[in-house]
Known about the structure:
2 domains; QueA-like; Thrombin, subunit H; globular; alpha/beta; cytoplasm; single chain
Amino acid sequence: MKVDLFDFVLPPDRIALHPAQPRDTARMLVVDAAGLHDRTVRDLPASLRPGDCLVFNDTRVIPAQLSGTRGAARIAATLHKREGARRWRAFVRGAKRLRNGDAIDFGAGVSAISTARGEDGSWALDFAGDEPVELLLERAGTMPLPPYIAQKRGISARDADDYQTMFANEPGAVAAPTAALHFTPELMAALADAGIAHETLTLHVGAGTFLPVKAEDTADHRMHAEWGRIDGATADRLNAVRAGGGRVIAVGTTSLRLLESATGADGTIRPFEGDTAIFITPGYRFRAVDGLMTNFHLPRSTLMMLVSALMGIDRIKAAYAHAIAQEYRFYSYGDASLLIP
């Protein structure tokens, strides 16, 4: 399938540089069988049914952006996947200056050795010392905001809170599961009062989520693997929701991708722990989810392909055209959509 099918033109001023305050006041475009409906996130309890279940990703974003030197050369690294207790795979700006075995000084007493360059150009970085790498990153790292935000306004101290969901519990992500940024304790209480349950799983989102699709055809694109986990008790409860007539609504494409990775051809969600590189494009048959709450995605991105697979390319193009015309805010800090096939 041609990647051009998933392209659209977005005015640059529609890219949100800060989240809505309070978070649940963001706008929400509901796309369902009845058409398009302009609402806000606070309308979510009335937009779902009693017995439905929202599934959140409880990953926690780590300060995975590092800046350092190798001799006189400047090196910038974005960690994207843990490969061991002290080893992280990283995308490196200035990678042509690196050789196997080079020492990189990131300041604040944090250093790493570059090893094992990957086919995708990434490097494995082995961090020196005995302290947990998470503590080293707290000292030397910054929040890994998406480039379309960081390049426009830089990173502020406030992003340490703004770019973390209320569910963040399991450290390891280098990008936030941004659909869940819209949720507040007040909204969760309103959902519970409306008879809508929730569950959590863990998928450590990698920096590959920001990478553009460079191939001309989806068949030639290679997804980066991300680590995720669904425990047996959670899988059992989600299966019971569907058996009782409720719907499983993924909050974010990361939750959806892990749910689909854990679900067999019979529609049963099973315990899962490991890597997934699932790539969902039109023609995919969904097995685990009945809907998706998500933000508005980049043109030509794998996430644009995913929502097109869920709703159909024509419906998504119509929804995005409506969102642009109605001045919705796009991308990680932007507004939401609720997609019910």
